[in-house]
Amino acid sequence: MTALFGFALVLSCSAHVFALKSHLFRQRVPGPADTDVDYKTYYFDQKIDHFGFLENGTFKQRYLVADKHWHKEGNPILFYTGNEGDITWFCNNTGFMWDVAEELGAMLVFAEHRYYGESMPFGAESYSDAKHLNYLSSEQALADFAVLIRYLKESPATNRSAVIAIGGSYGGMLAAWFRMKYPHVVAGALAASAPIWQFPGMVDCGVFYRIVTDDFSRGGKNCDANIRVSWKAIDKLSSTDEGLQWLSREFSLCAPLTKGFDLKSWLQETWVNLAMVDYPYKANFLQPLPAWPIKVVCENLRFSPEVPEQELLSGVAKAAKVYYNYTGEASCLNISQSATGNLGMMGWFYQACTEMVMPMCTDGVKDMFEPQEWNFQAFSDECFSMFGVRPRADWAAVMYGGKAIASHSNIIFSNGGLDPWSGGGVLQSPSESLVAVWIPEGAHHLDLRYNNEYDPKSVLDARQQEVAIIKQWIKQWAAHTQREL
Amino acid sequence: MTALFGFALVLSCSAHVFALKSHLFRQRVPGPADTDVDYKTYYFDQKIDHFGFLENGTFKQRYLVADKHWHKEGNPILFYTGNEGDITWFCNNTGFMWDVAEELGAMLVFAEHRYYGESMPFGAESYSDAKHLNYLSSEQALADFAVLIRYLKESPATNRSAVIAIGGSYGGMLAAWFRMKYPHVVAGALAASAPIWQFPGMVDCGVFYRIVTDDFSRGGKNCDANIRVSWKAIDKLSSTDEGLQWLSREFSLCAPLTKGFDLKSWLQETWVNLAMVDYPYKANFLQPLPAWPIKVVCENLRFSPEVPEQELLSGVAKAAKVYYNYTGEASCLNISQSATGNLGMMGWFYQACTEMVMPMCTDGVKDMFEPQEWNFQAFSDECFSMFGVRPRADWAAVMYGGKAIASHSNIIFSNGGLDPWSGGGVLQSPSESLVAVWIPEGAHHLDLRYNNEYDPKSVLDARQQEVAIIKQWIKQWAAHTQREL
């Protein structure tokens, strides 16, 4: 369980809305020995405000550099456009870059996004109020990246290097936007599982949860059907104290349940997370999980949806424990773990409440969730009460172009068929140099993970294609640079 | 005389630096019946801050619309990206748009730049301090344009219309940058006399004044040579009270001269302005002037540079009066006219003091001016004392790409051989769709002016080429839009 749910509790009337924002972006600091990546940590003095001159202060932006395979002047730089979390976590979870570094002779740079990890513009005050949060935006983050790269390229050893932006999820959106807005800085971008169209008016707000549902539908007989009927069953049981007690016991909750809503929000989030991390091998991204975790979850939900409520919910509880207690180490499950100490979540909430407005909705028919419409006004009101700011629904489209991106170049949009975020992704190549890569068996940015013996062929092919295209960009950059100098 | 000089006086140690910034951007509200343009005036509620969410206020952005020739749904929109001045003045001085509106069946829109004309984010307080000035930047202005166009295209009549950005001088820079940063909003940009490379490290800081000098060198025998020796002569005469009195009389100054520096700054500005408006016909852009005004000026400077100081400066005074009193209506010349009421100048100073850092220098050898090096630190210190902000020398390059613009598309960069700003312009086509247009006989954005019987063939050809390319962009846009819908 993460911080998010704490917020979901607070935001009772549409926990939903916030829950949705969080799935993509959950951060987790890796345990020791997650990988054996080897990098050096640096800090760069960034302007707090790139777009105004009144605030002339700076902050330390953290970035990580690995140059083990970078032996030659002008060799490329793979630049991870950090998203809403601790950059070391992204560094450890972007095995693709480590896997291809030698082949490309590339330097790896992982740049932390402002307001996350250690890169706090105002130290401990950064999240204190709307005034201090005012410099948290994708535009400021992209400017940070551009300024940092300018600095990194001041040396004769790097000043001709092609820089390739790489990112997953919101980091993938940043990678794509970085190439769109700063094509003089990056030769190309690999935008993995980047839902750049999950904005108002671009895609059906129901697509995200339909994909989650499809994953569970394929996960096993009756799996989605049983989840679909579970909500009413929870309502019924949680209407009495005895029912609440029974649910608390059955789900092994650390604290007794006081209302069914909390359990439902938590479960909804659980199913979404499972859809995102339905990887073909044992992995530890959001949680330690078995290979193809949805299949394992669904083994607990094969019975007929007609079974009595308690039998149904016993199955649901077992299913949830696959996600929360695969290791068997959890003595109880904690659905009220709060946001404290997890600035990443708070940052993403703020971003969702300003420019990252991503409508989501459910209808309970084409998806297995309780019906909930997208209600911008309610969302806006919550944002205002939480941060004192209101979201600007159209801004992302104005700034980043929405679907009209064909005049840009050199971006790979990779998406996985299992990933609910693919619903807001670019699935058809908009042009010859904007290439959509489809990984039918892929969950959330599977292609950015280390090679694994259980990888489906589709992701191996995708990575191969990505590397081939990146090599083209590097050549192209060299040719340009030659001409320009 | 304009506001600028008032500032030059204040900023004694490098009036020069500021003077340079102003030539491009002088504003002047047109007199009645300057032209017979017919437009409607509108006001659009713009966010004061597009890049932060703390400041959620709005202001009224003025824009002008002329749709006399726009008869058909989906027909194009020519959009003037307003620069640092009253938009009605640009509207009246961009005859090109009025001339081609019928042929293109185009709607004309002239959008005022924030902090100029009537488009004041904080009304009368807009210029009161650095806090209120904090939203004056090219990025905010471009976002204004993008948001305004989104609004203009909400109607079914316009939502498929290709929008072509057009601008001259700083407005041309904005047009080019607009296409670079918002290619989903504008199909292409005509950037006339846009010195997008007049930034640190991109061109020789001396090129601007060398071009001015070349213009005077071609203007008549001994013309540049006499101006070159005039500075020392002024120094000598102004070293005594009698000399100062003599100069004040000779130049018909409204107020007696107290130091030679003031006269020199004013003259330097005069020669620069003449180079900018050396048009082939009688015109009234910065001042009412005869055709080819530099030739007329130089008729007063044909004597040998060996003549005695007073004879020399008598000639210079006559030359200056061509610029300041061609109509004969001025009873005296006012070199201390202050900045009061001319917010345009103040705005441009602020922009120069923040992101529009344009190095200029003179050596007195390759140009006819007194040697002055580019001194960033001194400039920065003046900015700080004036506005409490410091310029960011590299920011424009980071943001807009400097010379590495080849991956963009659909921009025409037109420049005139007589225009000193051409030194910072794009003179060679960077790619097939980034087209440089050269007008050897052209001064500052001559191509954006009305057709005139005295126009040289080169500008007629340029306009024809520009229209042909704009037509291609419109077709291209229609094809794209068809595919996307």
TrEMBL record, chains A, B:
Alphabetical list of Pfam families matching this protein: Peptidase_S28
Parts forming coiled coils: none
E.C. numbers: 3.4.16.2
Subcellular location: Lysosome
GO CC annotations on file: lysosome
Cited InterPro entries: AB_hydrolase_fold, Peptidase_S28, Ser_carbopepase_S28_SKS
Extent of the signal sequence: 1-19
GO molecular function: serine-type carboxypeptidase activity
Keywords: Carboxypeptidase, Disulfide bond, Glycoprotein, Hydrolase, Lysosome, Protease, Signal, Zymogen
GO biological process: proteolysis
Top-level enzyme category: hydrolase
Recorded catalytic activity of this chain's protein: Cleavage of a -Pro-|-Xaa bond to release a C-terminal amino acid
Quaternary assembly: Homodimer.
Family under the similarity heading: Belongs to the peptidase S28 family.
Annotated function: Cleaves C-terminal amino acids linked to proline in peptides such as angiotensin II, III and des-Arg9-bradykinin. This cleavage occurs at acidic pH, but enzymatic activity is retained with some substrates at neutral pH.
Protein name: Lysosomal Pro-X carboxypeptidase
